[in-house]
Amino acid sequence: MLFHVFLREDVDVAIYEVGVGGELDSTNVVEQPAVTGITSLGIDHVAALGDTIDRIAWHKAEISKQGCLAFTVKQVPEAMEVLNQRAAEKHVELTTVEIGSLLQNVDIKPAEDFQRKNASLAVKLSFTILERLGALPEQFVQGLKGVV
Q1: Contact 42, 73 (CB under 8 A)
Q2: Which stretch of DSSP H or E encloses residue 86?
Q3: pLDDT tens digits, residue range 117-136?
Q4: What domains can be seen in the chain, in order of their start residue?
Q5: Are 37 and 22 in contact (CB under 8 A)?
Q6: Measured between alpha carbons, how far is 26 from 19 in angstroms, rounded to an integer?
Q7: CA dist 33 → 15, 41, 47, 48, 65 (Å)
């Protein structure tokens, strides 16, 4: 249903979040996204993804597709190892995004490292798409300030 709306409305770019996880997620119908990102992983959706961080990372890594730019934030070592292994299997270059220096003066809530990591990833993903479109709006900072 969601993807029919994109087509009907002639959407140039759609940002969507997977629900449970990449391997089992319905968003896998998008075979060639422009860019993908994996935020800070935690122990969630254990019934579907498994009860360890490495099992969860394995599922989440399915969002990465060959020929598609892929980014993540620094994960715990067990998760990072799995993400890198899956990227190699899929012939995907996975880039780790560091906390952006431009975010130092942005009042992000909660003001925690995981939120700054995820905000940095969101900026990188958006920046990647905006570079392809040739537009770099100032609204990044204003949008991030409004995130709660």
Answers
A1: no
A2: helix 77-89
A3: 999 999 899 888 888 777 65
A4: 2-145 (3.40.1190.10)
A5: no
A6: 8
A7: 10, 21, 27, 24, 8
